[in-house]
């Protein structure tokens, strides 16, 4: 009887790990995304002098948004180090607590009118803590799901962790949408704080679920066999340096989401006449589309030739993202909604697949550090800078053409870097369980040919 009970628990373990990864990342990304929405809508008014030009104040609020992205590689390094040495579970509990405390702090932070320059300084510091938390969260969540997955289903189970991003974004946008009917003075004074304060309740739920987790078998075996790396980051850079830099470019296209949910929200409501409520409805529709279609990216990459699957997924993005900006510029609510929903499909499906692909690229004893460091470097260089660059181009040119052009370039970078990455991992789904690690890549010189 005990043996049967153990077998039943082992069968349930993959799904428990997947659900825990999904719930935890949903909460983490909710916290991260509400900052972007608040930066687009109110932070320029709340945390900077009223004498500033509105466009400059918005630009500065986007710069504080970038501070979180700058901190993300640091989070990847810190928690990747401990995740590869002591295990995935402990780091995931710590990152969730950090995110919850920093988000609550932002919700309680006094305005510029109350404490002057200390307000934006405090905002940046709390945003940095958010960045460190989410920088350590992503890799661990993907691994706790994929390393506990049944045989040949690592990419599919990694997609559970990836679903936390649209779910968290959807929840964040929904909360702001429900508050959008508030009178603007009340919203600026105190209404925007509600989503941040709600985070405390969500974090308690996430902590309860994550504390029930057990460590992945792959990591347990590494610890038992004393194969733990003393300095995982140093080993990753020495042994897999070129892989790190190319893997860094792979997620580039997913950061167009900040062109939609942060930059476009600010642009549409301040310059094009959309109301906060109507444009948040458009974003909500796109996020529902993302939540529904995103897992199909993992399905395509798992069941078909990976190179062909990536081409099918990414090529439409070259047309659809520029088309989205043109549609928004028309001022038509329905045209903007349809275009944004269509533009969401390619990069969402791509996001659903890349977690498992990046996990396969690194050996288990360096996996947390390797994939986290690569992914968060991309967030630093591209993710946080995306709304800043877009706002600067809009201020400088007065038009949207250059913003539309860079959105297509993001897809180009992801396409070529992913095709390069696929040469270094096998076409079959590598099992991420104990004792099986990604193969050592051939020399970079040969790959260049």
TrEMBL record:
GO molecular function, a single term: transmembrane transporter activity
Compartment(s) of residence: Cell membrane
PROSITE patterns in the cross-refs: MFS
Keywords noted in UniProt: Cell membrane, Membrane, Transmembrane, Transmembrane helix, Transport
Residues covered by the Major facilitator superfamily (MFS) profile domain: 17-426
Membrane disposition: Multi-pass membrane protein
One of the Pfam families matching this protein, by short name: Sugar_tr
Transmembrane residue ranges: 21-44, 56-79, 91-112, 124-145, 166-184, 190-209, 242-259, 279-302, 309-328, 334-361, 373-394, 400-422
CDD domains per the UniProt record, alphabetical: MFS_ShiA_like (cd17369)
GO cellular component: plasma membrane
Entry keyword annotation includes Hydrolase: no
SUPFAM superfamilies: MFS general substrate transporter
Keyword Nuclease applies: no
Name of the protein in question: Putative MFS family arabinose efflux permease
